[in-house]
Amino acid sequence: MSQTTVSEPGVARSSTAKKESLTVIDNRTGKTYELPITHGTTRAMDLRQIRVSADDFGLMSYDPAFMNTASCTSRITYIDGDRGILRYRGYPIDQLAESSNYLETAYLILNGELPTKPRYDKWVWDVTHHTMVHENVKDLMMGFRYDAHPMGMLLSTVGALSTFYPEAKEVHDPLVREKQIQRLIAKIPTLAAFAYRHSKGMPYVYPDNDLSFCGNFLNMMFKATELRYHVNPVLERAFDVLFILHADHEQNCSTSAMRGVGSSYVDPYSAAAAAIGALYGPLHGGANEQVLRMLAEIGSKDKVPAFVKEVKESGGEVKLMGFGHRVYKNYDPRAKVIKQMADKVFEVTGRNPLLDIALELERIALSDDYFVKRKLYPNVDFYSGLIYQAMGFPVDMFPVLFAIGRMSGWLAQWQEMVEDKEQKIARPRQVYLGADERPYVPLIQRS
Ligand code: CMC
């Protein structure tokens, strides 16, 4: 607990000097407490001293869904949701999307600095030489039903990797951590591509070390009978940008899962499996899949006004998928980059016919009072699915693609958590509102 001061009832505290603290009067007891403010936060543990009697547990803060609770300090990603700013380690997202590639950005996120040329080369070599998976992983994947969702397959196989690398338990050993980080970043595209090939009933394609991170992924996804699959450089670059945009987003649902599960000091494969599970949900990484389903359901541009009306009148039940964000109350900067990139991709793949519906939805929503008042803007998922679909990815694969990019962020946040001396096993409190103690009633006596 940090330094706090308490005054007895009636003791006035008069000071005009500006202080970084909060004065709280407990009207139940008349006591006054002065709680320090650090980095714009007060510590929830400082509330514990506020009690009505010696046997009172003490005051807690109640914050379902962590609407206003910082659970950690971090030096990785900065977001200003009101101004639409996103930076990794201080670098603006649009500059990274313009000039960096995914592996360089992953290095930055994980290590705090852009790599020098020798460090970059070593990092690329290390990742490239960890893309293979054990043959038994392939057998494990063969066991899934033909129509298994690739995200379910990814989740299970990432978790299963912990059994192949038992040393990963040594989470306090930086060298062991470094190796698992290389493995996870390198292997997730392989597992993602295997999951896709499984659903198609096609043979799995092994990694090719002559290709770039994104080129290798496209090769493992789409190579058919040709001796050498031609990686289209526009699509290869588009993936670099998409993975950069998805690489980290501070304490979102899946990252909180990674940190929360990782805080028990389980191995990172198990923690990453939990993060993939969180990402799978339709309110998180599953949203891009839902956007495409929504656009297909709307069917044509002229039906957009009726759909928007339905959303508004549903009382929150029907949502405009790909719109809104807990943090961004302005245009999501990632959506801006993706929208600009879409045209380049469509020049290669042909225009996605659903784009017109999406543009019309955006146009109407951005001028409609319902959305304007609630500050609902397109988020990263609104346009990414259109690009993925135009490239030939089935909708089931969209959250999987999100997971490939986000793996670097999850691992950076996990590493930061493990090294943070202030962190302990995550264990939120609850406010119990259930039944008081009562005696057990045997089954036969229950009416
Ligand atoms: N369509 C229609 N209304 C919406 C939407 C939407 N997409 N999003 C929020 N609202 C309304 C909501 O009903 C509420 O209205 P009211 O004040 O009348 O009750 C108000 O806006 C505030 O919404 P909220 O649910 O309190 O906001 P939240 O911060 O809890 O939820 C969200 C954020 C992203 C879960 C939500 O906006 C949403 O469900 N969006 C659609 C799903 C989506 O696109 N998710 C991807 C997020 S970005 C990628 C990622 O990082 O995962």
Any chance you could write out the topology, listing elements then pairs?
Elements: E1 5-7, E2 21-26, E3 31-36, E4 77-80, E5 85-88, E6 91-92, H1 93-99, H2 102-111, H3 117-128, H4 135-142, H5 150-164, H6 174-200, H7 213-222, H8 233-246, H9 253-262, H10 268-280, H11 287-298, H12 304-313, H13 333-349, H14 355-366, H15 369-373, H16 380-391, H17 398-419
Antiparallel strand pairs: 1-3, 2-3, 4-5, 5-6
Bound molecules: carboxymethyl coenzyme *A.
Descriptive report:
By secondary structure, the protein is mainly alpha-helical. Strand 2 and strand 3 form a beta hairpin. Helix 5 runs antiparallel to helix 10 and helix 13 packs parallel to helix 16. The N and C termini lie far apart (50 Å). The model has no long low-confidence stretch (mean pLDDT 94). The site of carboxymethyl coenzyme *A (CMC) has 21 residues, from helix 16. Carboxymethyl coenzyme *A (CMC) binds next to helix 16.
Low-confidence segments: none
| Oligomeric state of the chains in view | single chain
Overall body shape: globular
Q: Helical residue percent?
A: 40-55%
Tell me the major beta sheet. Answer: 3 strands, antiparallel
Placed side by side, the strands forming the largest sheet appear as 1-3-2
Integer-rounded radius of gyration: 25 Å
Features:
single chain, 447 residues, mainly alpha, 3-stranded antiparallel sheet, 6 strands, 48% helix, globular, binds carboxymethyl coenzyme *A
